[in-house]
Design goal:
8 strands, five-stranded antiparallel beta sheet, Jelly Rolls, alpha+beta
Length: about 140
Amino acid sequence: MEIINIKSVQRVEFIDITGEIEKIIYSSGALNGLVCLFVPHTTAALTLNENADPSVKNDIKNKLESMIPRNDNYAHSEGNSDSHLKASIFGPSLTLIISKGSLVLGTWQGIYFCEFDGPRNRKLYIRIIKDNDSV
């Protein structure tokens, strides 16, 4: 298992981690298999989305803020209830296919670490499961 550290600089931020995941896959020597990504934080998440046009990240961020505002009479007293809700919508994990030593992604897809309660130092766990033909 690999662990990467991610440092966010904004309260809500979508950090493209595609390149880092690809490097880990390459270093592992996996030709075919799966890569499992897991965020062990309740106010952060993962998602796949377009990574060609940066306005997509802004659109997602703005829509989330309108749907789940920071202050909205939440019972949770830490002041980050919106962050928990946003992370729950996206989820803490992704499982992706590795084929011929590379991630299987759509033309415009990238992997994003979603920060909803930053700035913070975060961890991301990565587990590669090789197919028998990758050994």
